[in-house]
């Protein structure tokens, strides 16, 4: 595959949704472009604004908080899987609204209160990155809301 063919393919790949540089490198390996051209292709994609690490991080965090109801701890782990630098992760995690995290924890506790045992609910919320203290507090509040 030539560099121009790879660029065209990756422009479509990056235009579909925000991608991390790690995902693009993995895709370059999959399409079997020689590794000596990888940096050139990534640089071109960044110059053309198809690839932006910070934009990816913002979209990732927003999506995981709003759709998946993840807590900052799980988001940090997800970003580390994408090989995002620790400085960028710390900066974006610091900007996460604690009220939104609490509302998400309460939402999950209310949603799962009737269908899961306390242990199952705790385990499910821990997988999403919530601390035990926040899970316990959300559980207690959900129980008190449903008793009325």
Protein model, in words:
With 148 residues, the protein is mainly alpha-helical. It folds into 3 domains: 3-51, Arc Repressor Mutant, subunit A; 54-94, no CATH class; 98-147. Helix content is 73%, strand content 0%. The chain has 9 helices and no strands. It has helices at 3-16, 21-30, 38-47, 53-66, 72-81, 86-94, 98-112, 118-127, 132-147. It starts with a helix and ends with a helix.
Which consecutive residue ranges, at least 5 long each, have pLDDT under 50? none
The major sheet is characterized as: none
How many helices? The count is 9
Query: Rg to the nearest angstrom?
Result: 20 Å
Topology:
Elements: H1 3-16, H2 21-30, H3 38-47, H4 53-66, H5 72-81, H6 86-94, H7 98-112, H8 118-127, H9 132-147
Helix pairs in contact: 4-6, 5-6, 7-9, 8-9
Main traits of this protein?
single chain; 148 residues; mainly alpha; Arc Repressor Mutant, subunit A; 3 domains; 9 helices; 73% helix; elongated
